[in-house]
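assembly run, all chains below
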Amino acid sequence: MRIGYYISGAGHIGLILWMFFGEMFNTPPQSFEVTEVSVISGAEFDAMMAGVQTPEVTTDVAMPAPALPAEVVPPAESRPDPTQPTPPEPQVTEAPQSDPVPQQPDPLPQRAEAEVSDEAPVIAPPPQEEVVLSPNISDRPVPRPSERVAPEPVAAPEPDTQVSDSVTEEVVPDEEAEVVREETEGGAPEEATTRIVTEAMEEPSAAPTTSIRPRTRPARPEPAPVAETPQEPAPQQQAQEQPAPQSDSTADAVADALRQALEGGAASPAAGGQSGPPMTSGERDALRVAVQQCWNVGSLSSEALRTTVVVAVSMSEDARPMGDTLRMLSYDGGSAEAARQAFESARRAIIRCGANGFNLPRDKYAQWRDIEMTFNPENMRIR
Amino acid sequence: MTRLLTLLAALLVFALPATAQNGPLRIEITEGVIEPLPFANPAFVAENAAATELAQNIARVVSDDLIGTGLFREIPPSAFISQITSFNSPVQFADWRAINAQALISGAVSVGSDGSVAVKFRLYDVFAGQELGEGLQFNGTQAGWRRMAHKVADAVYSRITGEGGYFDSRVVYVAETGPKDDRRKRLAIMDYDGANVQYLTDSNSIVLAPRFSPTGDRILYTSYESGFPRIYVMDVASVGRRALPTQDGTMSFAPRFAPDGNTVVYSLTTGGNTDIYRMDVSSGNASRLTSTPSIETAPSFSPDGSRIVFESDRSGTQQLYIMGANGGEPQRISFGQGRYGTPVWSPRGDLIAFTKQSKGRFHIGVMRTDGSEERLLTASFLDEGPTWSPNGRVIMFTRETQGEAGAASLYSVDISGRNLKQIRTEGGASDPAWSPLQR
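ok done. output:
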């Protein structure tokens, strides 16, 4: 509350002080000059302004005179409107004048008869130019011989005697003394030959170019049925006889491996033989894609679409399926009737797309002569 | 010594060329194509002059049946290299292979002196170069030539696809005429393809939801003839009908036969509550299967008759439930967004078709019997009332267009969702029910 009184009191005091002493802040008015002017009448003003002419605004501007043409050009004729058909003007035909009678040309001057003799003139043969075989490549200019090195060696000057703090006798190598050589490693100059032998000229190496796919591990032979022994041997006897069968089994395994290797090599020609490297995944995929493009499952039943069939087929050497070899090896997931439908669909696919031969490497015929295709419609089912 | 022998053996194994064949080349095909199978169906051979027109007509119907499935494509006759002039002449498979015909139908028709008609056919797998199945012959009358053609098509379809056919079947539906606010409805029956339409009732009263018996000789339907909905049984041959017994003041509707043909399940509304009942057709004895304050309706038996699928709003929205044939605690199978109704069990037993309303649109869909693998096959302003073909491969339903001039018509779709097409009818049509294959 007091603050208000203070403010109000300060304001009133200030106002009173301004009323008493406010005049001291007023600046005195500045003095101004008074100039006497003469008053003139309107007639005098007009007489004074009579000499000043205001420009008139003119809108008509004279066109510049055209340049005189060098020749007088006749006015262009108005062209007929092509859209407006012009009536055909009647052509005035004049009476044909009779052709002028051709006048007889002047007789040609008679040719002077040439004098012909029976003997043929002797024609001098043209001067034959000497043909010089020019070399295709000009000879390389032979450098002018110059003696850059003095033909005779100049005798070397005697070496200066070296200055030394002490007098030393000159040591001359004794030619008769034995030469002691330092131990160094043996070396030989790089091999050199008189002719360059390229790879093409090299004789073929006997090393195999391709590695042989390792054969699958042979199935472990079934244990031979052991005849029942009436009496089991004593434990000590078993312990003594234990090493003997082990050595036999090892020897048998080695013998089996040898035999299989030998049999494989011997049986290959009869079996057709595997030639070339194994089929690549790209070659397999090409066959798979070719078949699946013809495998139409649109007309299969729902049950057949749940049936996977394995189809075997033998191929001819021109990569065509042999129809009479097509057979269903097995099926899974459906009834026999559904499997039959699925097999027929697969058979159509193989025959239809293989009619012109599949794109298979001919050099690997032994590997695709017999094919087993598994048709799995899992991805084609109605979902 | 042993090590030495082993090393020697290893060297020999790897040194000798291993040229033996390690079995056949094995590949697995997991992708195929889905496209109509091209077939050739030359005009059937007319074995006498009287059979000329019939032979052409029968071949035409056979082709139409196969093409209509969406699974087959007919090769036009103009592409044929060779013709079949005799039913017993050998087939030049190379000529048919050249035009990519994968199946070839060879048929012949003869008309006997007594007017009887004999239709025989053979089916060939062109690329295999052999006959698919054995030749068949059907005997009938001239009036029944379409049925014979349908039977030939059924046999061809079955031999190629492995499924039963559905061409020799009929459809009962509600034929509709007049504007939307004064629509007249009556029962009609036709061949599955819209031919041979016959009207079973007049249009004096509203009829709803006709359903075939398992043998196709009777029809259940709901009629407002008495002023309130009531279930009737009609004999198809004689068009005679009778009403199922019911209590006064109740409304019964949505009937459907059990697979045995002697039992009917239906909905009964009494006291404002709708529940599902079953009734023995011959005795009229009824038993109640559900007893909840909610609305239970649209029951449908499983093919083995052991379970019933129906719709109920007991959870607050319209959903599908399955219960035993004699009632019991139902199990909900639909859990998607929207409302589900009008469930129908597939003849195969593996799927349930339904109507779904979601986000302002109607759909026809299918799901497994446990509610899994739901698939919506159609979508429109109003799709409803699915019915299965006899082989469980095709679904027919009602589609109604929008607006004052909107009309109902019948459509069919493959269970894969492909081959949606309209069934030709004379006027408006709704509430279809597919019959079993005719005998």
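Residues 51-114, 129-137, 224-247, 261-273 of chain A have pLDDT under 50 and may be disordered.

The longest strand of chain A covers residues 308-314.

not gonna interpret more than that til we talk
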